[in-house]
Amino acid sequence: MSQDTSDTEKEGVAGFMARAKEQAGEGAKEAANDKVVRPFEHAVSGFMGDAVSEGRLFSIADAVADYQENDIDVTDTTCEYCAVGCRFDVLTKDGEFLGTRPRPEKAPINGISTCVKGKFAHGYTHSDDRLTQPLVKEDGEFREASWDEALTRVAEGLGGVKEEYGPDGLGFVASSKATNEDNYAMQRFAREVIGTNNIDNCNRLCHSSTVSGLSSTFGFGAASVGMEALEETDCYLLTGSNTTEAHPVLATRIKQNVKDNDADLLVFDPRKTQIAEYADQYTQINAGYDNTWLNGLVRYILKNDLEDREFIEERTTGIEQVEESVEKFTPEFVEEHAGVPPEELVSAAETITEADSCVFGWTLGMTEHAKGTENIYAIANLALVTGHIGNPKSGVSPFRGQNNVQGGGGDMGPLPNNFPGYQPVTNEEHREKFAEAYGMDVEEMPDKEGYRLTDMFLTDDIHGMFIQGENSLVSEPNIAHARETIENLDFFAVQDIFLTETAELADVVLPATASLESNGTYTASTRHVQLVKRAVDPIGNAKPDWRITKALAAKFGYEWEYDHPSDIMDEINDLVPIYGGISHERLEALGDGEGLQWPVWDMDHPGTPYTYEEEFQTNDGLAHMHPADTVDPSETPDDDYPLVMTSGRVLYQYHTGTMTFRDEGVMSYSDKSFVEVHPETAEEYGIADEEVVELTSRHGKTEMLVQVTTRPNPGEVFVPMHYLEGGANNLTKEDPLDGAARTPEYKITDVQITGTEKEADDLQGSVPRGEARRPASSDD
């Protein structure tokens, strides 16, 4: 019997998942060929629902069958996975999670849609190994402690480092998974209680180059358009975005527009992801040369008088410098370096300039580079020379990866250079405003920019860290280096929902609430601020992040007058102009769940569906173009490391797997890391599909399974970012960093691939670590 036959004839969940995968692949291919919008990710969602129903895991129908409708509690909330901002009803009974159900009238972004994770992957909330009681480490082992003891330990640990090294001897990491209110409280704690601007979050590792590039060009480091553009534009240019797997609901909107309205879809990417199958033009580029082909587009447009000259002259500055900098990016130069055939460069340029509207969308394939900010300059320049920005259907749209990285990771100011609302910490007026609000003397408010997250792991000046909801040991580049940095700290505390790989290294671990146990707000990629509502009570003795931070501040003698997250949002709208008209009461009163898109300047302002209609958010109201002419990535292949590895997401996992690794249905589909290898590369190196190989870089090595596929270029390989064992960050490097954003070079790592004698079963799957943590007693 062949391997394929044996897989699909297995019994139970494993067999059904194998059959589902096969059917989904056939369905996606048929849909792509027929230009029918039958989205792969939603087809798989359906199969997965059936599969896990066989295993009695997730089926909502089975879960609610024993109850009458009026016996079930229904709570509308916002999804805790990617930053699309999907909303749905959460169904619970007696505190038990039953399932989710989209309600279109209260879900303006997703309507009836959710992805696999939004539909099924919430079981982690009541996982047996949830943290339910504070833990303190003694003699290398954890024991449970009361909240008072644990918070006292943290206060003593942080206070001791501060006393010996000063406030800047400490580093704080906030969480883009936590609410806006949680993140606001954390930045206030760092600045008011400790007296440092050494606070950052995972945005540094993903879209900080987007923020630096867009803010210095346009004024706001965020998407300029909302869902209207994503649903109705005439043209899309997508690059560095595995849209169907990372942002399935957005992919559905895009494909629907392509089908119904004949919108043009252009995809430029090193890896042929599923969205490319729906493209009018897919161009497979060489990894690491994004600004090369973007500059080539700009040059061709300018040389052939295809630009919007009136828009350029009236609304921009810097065109002369850009014209000079793109001169070398001829079609021949672009083909030599980026691998883009001249005819495809010309076709894309003419499609974009002939369109009445265009959306430029990207994710981490553009940003996670040592020259990520330059990549964003280049795509911003393209939007400006074509005039495709500042109207309802044209603009820039970076798709954000974590549920609240736009709001909690940026807007709320857990940043070393900005107060909430992107107000620079070096500006005396801003310091005076926040000092007055916090009851401080302005001299006590730190006035110099702090360390970026990536620099915290490089400097010798950080002696203690507090990490909230981030699994840094897996997410930081070069896992071995990250571990060494953490282990050398004088004091280390973690606040999370599980005993993650990072938390295992801590001196104290504080149990926080999961999304379904929390109240507050998230902000979507489209700048929508939406309510998050508690659907189930907190497990054990876990507490909301903001409440933990408030209690920790009290240990230092600071009494914050917050009784509910709505109180924190009231303080935010008083201090943050772009949130000036946002409150929990107003969001609830909207009734339709639509949320408000910032900037919302006051309580009478309706919000801003798209920005820059009349002027840009700069000192002179003009967009400022910047040259972006660096060509080569930070490292290039040689005889020892002849292949280029890039990394990214897969549909069934979420970031470092803290939540998704605990869902049995999800893990039955993708429990181990893998490397995608082109057939030509596999033949050259003598490796086969499903073989265990070793990947070695200049920075580390790891083992994983081979998937032979035509998705990557020959000479390039792809490894997911989610895994500790076999994951990409065993191989990536912590230096160099993007000069402006300090983002690592995640997307380009030179590697060597070699076969091993191991079998697939010899590899360790990604399984939850740590024992179940149930409280011995409760003091809350």
Structure notes:
- Strand 14 (418-419) and strand 15 form a beta hairpin.
- Helix 7 crosses helix 25 (565-575), helix 12 (290-303) crosses helix 16 (342-354) and helix 12 runs parallel beside helix 18 (372-385).
- The strands form 7 sheets. A 7-stranded mixed sheet has the order 5-4-18-17-16-6-7. Strands 23-27-24-26-25-28 form a 6-stranded mixed barrel.
- With 780 residues, it is α/β, with parallel strands linked by helices.
- Helices cover 33% and strands 16% of the residues.
Our count of domains comes out at 4
Please summarize the sheet with the most strands. 7 strands, mixed
Structural class: alpha/beta
Number of strands: 28
Strand portion: 15-25%
Helical fraction equals 25-40%
The CATH architecture classification of the largest domain is 3-Layer(aba) Sandwich
CATH class assignment of the largest domain: Alpha Beta
Number of helices: 28
**Low-pLDDT windows of residues:** 1-58, 767-780
User: Gyration radius, to the nearest Å?
Assistant: 25 Å
Q: Give the oligomer, counting copies of the same chain as homo and different chains as hetero.
A: single chain
Q: Tell me the CATH topology of the largest domain.
A: Rossmann fold
Question: Mean of the pLDDT scores?
Answer: 88
Distance between the termini: 59 Å
